[in-house]
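Researcher: Let's walk through a ligand-bound prediction step by step. First, I give you the protein sequence. Second, the SMILES string for zinc ion. Third, you return the three-dimensional complex as structure tokens. Ready?
Model: Ready.
Researcher: Here are steps one and two:
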Amino acid sequence: MAHHSRARFSLRRRRRGTLYANCLLLGLILLFFIWGMALRGREQLGADVPHGSITPPVITAANPISVRIFDHELNQIVPMDLETYVCHVVAAEMPASYEMEALKAQAVAARTLASEALLEGSRSCTAGSDMCTRADHCQAYDSETACRDKWGSEYNFWWGRVTEAVAATVGVIMTYEGEPIEVFYHAVSGGRTEDVENVFSQALPYLRSVSSEGEEQEKNFQRQISYSPKDFREKIRRYFDITLPGGNLSDSVRILSYYDSGRVREVRLNNQTVTAVELRRALGLPSTQFRIIFTASSVVFDCQGYGHGVGMSQAGANVMAREGSDFRDILTHYYTGISLETIDASNVS
Ligand SMILES: [Zn+2]
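Model: Step three, the predicted complex:
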């Protein structure tokens, strides 16, 4: 009996031992799994794994330029130095997980727009300010509070990346014939950017249509926006004061012409012609590169790209950076014939 009992005891111990071994094995597998996920996450972000211990670099311009920013949220003019302003714009205008060279290109674009505003005094925001924080007027701007809200415990890491990009390009702007260029940029071109005069008013030699390859894998490359026929008619009536006749919408709505970039130029709505730029604004479409699909229960705009399509494509910049281009390559690709120059306070008086 004793022998039997000991055997049972040792059996139980062995069983428990196997359980411990299994737990250990499971733990190890789990550990490897988590490690693998972390590595994958790092690859996807194109950045190091976020942690809170990075101290953002301090940006020291030799001869700093001061700017007066009208903050729409605070409803007041906030004075700051140009490089700090550029950090807040980059944080708002481009995902901080984008490649470092793309972030640098964005920093130069944001700084160029600011320099143009300072030199030309042309923005006409609130009196006494050089620029404002509204994306649809000047450039988007995320305050420290906004950045902390969106990044949470990873704030130091992402703000660190943004300031690294700005610090690496301190004072650098794009010029054409010695003057800061008029800057436009957008999220995703859909494969090709657009000549500025096809979207805005005036032709400019450095804002020409160029190819933007490899964007297919990027976010927002293609999106479908769908309306019920009733909603669509209502929007067209309200925005253009055009009443579309009853029956099939495919009889009264049709694309008339295209630009060379592949974007739609004009659309026929009943017996009137509107530009695709106006139609995009009216419907809030992602882009003017679309085809229209009519079904029995809906009108679908199948759109490629996101934004107006002029100047740098941010997604395209990210693709170029991933494939080894630096910020100079990116900017000279999207802005034809520009030079890069460095400015400081002596240029802005
Ligand atoms: Zn403004």
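Researcher: And what stands out?
Model: Residues 2-45 form the longest helix (44 residues). The first strand starts at residue 66 and ends at 71.
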